[in-house]
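chain below, 123 aa
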Amino acid sequence: MTDSRDERRPAGELEAAVMAALWAAGAPLTPGRVQAELGGGLARTTVATILTRLHEKGVVGRQRQGRGFAYFPVQDAPGLTARRMHTELDRDADRQTVLARFVAQLGPGDEEVLRRLLDGDER
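prediction:
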């Protein structure tokens, strides 16, 4: 029998679960509290490591609480997605081609939203 703590999950999946817990909480959480919110399937040290990495990436902030820290998101989910998109865009030297291919793959609805946003109509 495999202990759920021994199961390996991709770091991105774990980070997403931790971020979901922080967004749902609406208040700073300690690693132990995040662990509890996730159902306890992860070791507290694993949760603490994920939170530290998210802090180093600038995705979460932290404040001193007792001898440790309580963590909070610095952006909402759409803001984080936009940040990831920028990160991916910055990885390629040919920014114009990447943007052109991105736009070419947009569906009609997304294309219309993008046109409105570029024209300054943020509705």
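The helical segments are 11-25, 31-37, 44-56, 77-90, 95-104, 108-118. DSSP finds six helices and two strands in the chain.
thats it, cya
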